[in-house]
């Protein structure tokens, strides 16, 4: 029984639908064709995302001041839970792409509300113009009103955990080009049975309209087909820190802290780019500074 079948049978005793999945990370997804972001969208009063959602052709933030760590993993891998802990201990600002999209969807007058709703329900990747613009705007406003007054946030500096992003190659490349080059990727890996168990548990109380049978199947498939190639891309660049997130939360977090501490320490003792080695990663010379130097 595949994990997709298990998702289906966990929600209903109906016979499995004809949906299929692929474990080939380079398979061409048939379901990820995206709608174009409207070029002349209807008028909106509140403007969290500008109507044209145009992205800059050069980086908006200085990578020597603004540190970005991408946090990836399948749905239910524990990204949000671990990010919450990191925020407390290391003064990161946590930005979840999914949360920003849900907020934008719920914002009265949003030009993209309907489009986002449809993509989320289908477990598809929302067009990059919208997602990246939301992230860029959230980063700008965080830098304008820093979450605290610690060294990490003085003089235009900031450190962000960007969770659930990039989920598709175009986003990865465009974010680096138009927002800021990321430092590395924290990748939470676990097996699909554990992901499934966690999502089913969360679905009892989350109230999320994508924690249902059909959406979970689609989200799993999108992750394997569209998001894993992003992890593989960064892995080839030596920018992936992979953590097994199967154990209990605190055990996982101990490992996360070790990895983050190594990088914090290395950024304060090295002036050049880091080339740390761990069992699962080695940072590339091409990477942005691991963390903006503290004053
Ligand atoms: P999450 O809250 O991370 O589980 O994401 C929920 C849904 O939001 C996903 O299934 C996608 O439809 C959408 N979404 C989240 N992150 C992204 C992203 N980086 N790019 C496009 N769509 C996204």
Automatic annotation (TrEMBL):
Sequence ranges of Basic and acidic residues compositional bias: 31-45
Positions binding ATP in this chain are: 76-81, 202, 247
From the Swiss-Prot or TrEMBL record, what is one GO molecular function term?
ATP binding
Q: What is its EC number?
A: 2.7.4.14
Write down the SUPFAM superfamilies for this protein, in alphabetical order. P-loop containing nucleoside triphosphate hydrolases
- Where in the cell does this protein reside? Cytoplasm; Nucleus
Looking up Pfam families in the UniProt record yields: ADK
Task: Write out the catalysed reaction.
Answer: UMP + ATP = UDP + ADP
Describe the subunit structure: Monomer.
NCBIfam families xref list = UMP_CMP_kin_fam
What is the protein name stated in its UniProt record? Uridylate kinase
